[in-house]
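sanity check this record:

:::
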Amino acid sequence: MASILSVSDVNKVFEGGHEALKSVSLEIEEGEILALLGPNGAGKTTLISIICGMVNPTGGSVRVGGHDIIDDFREARRLIGLVPQEINLEPFERVLNTVRFSRGLFGKRRDDAKLETILRQLSLWDKKDARIKELSGGMKRRVLIAKALSHEPRILFLDEPTAGVDVELRKDMWQIVRQLKEDGVTIILTTHYIEEAEAIADRVGVISKGEILLIKEKDALMSQMGRKELEIELGAPLDAVPDALAHHALTLSEGGRSLIYSYDTAAERTGITTLLTDVAKAGLVTRDVSTRQSSLEDIFVGLVEDAG
């Protein structure tokens, strides 16, 4: 599939010498959802700001739909919709007028039928005549998305789109993103919520201290780097792991009710059979055995710690 966004060796050094981005390169395929994960200060917002033309890079190049963001700024920017972190809307303006104005800023002809489709898709049509100040925080975020979609962009940037919203509304947002993808929109999402990436992303990128640590398909990443935990629930609590089991690198759960064993799912041998045999030989009574797949959060935390 063709790349719609190409970032090549981009770096950014701010006044004072802070290097926010360090030779960042990535290719975004048309129609995919990429989740960009990283701690505060990792460089996520700086990267988006450069791609959207709000911050100039110190070095490197960015092309959007084949257009250079500096030499052909207007054409590149027309292809991009941006939903920022901050809710910055005119409080006394009405919803429909707010979205209509955004469409006009990009030189698009007035098309209220198109705007009605967008507002209905975002469950905002019944609020079209409401003033922004009358809306809830979640509805205001939907208005930001409607504004970003008003000029029919091919790429949508969502910078922490569900920050500060409740779990139910967050899941509504995920459904909106899935629908946008079905409509052919390419989506780049930055988030602190790991479950957001697990729920909707095709690929996951991890950025830390201005550097891209990796970009992989979500399922491949979890398969390659994921680990499983085996939990052995005991008949009686322990104060410590018995010496006879020390070579298995076990940890004891809080309260001493379970032994926890971590293993690599891709390994030729997991060591589970030997472990269970040794547990029985140690005279321990096993009540139950269960496994847990490591989450994307576990992988993310491990990558960032390794990079530090």
Remarks:
- The chain has two domains: 3-223, 227-294.
